[in-house]
Amino acid sequence: MPGRGARAHGAARPCPSVRPERHARTRERLGRAREEAL
User: Are 12 and 6 in contact (CB under 8 A)?
Assistant: First the structure.
């Protein structure tokens, strides 16, 4: 649905509640999956 994206949830502005280590973990997991897939 239009208007229910990241901007609607307040992800446009940097929020201290979002943990960067969580995103780093996800990015690392995706990198490993890509390496395994190749």
Answer: yes
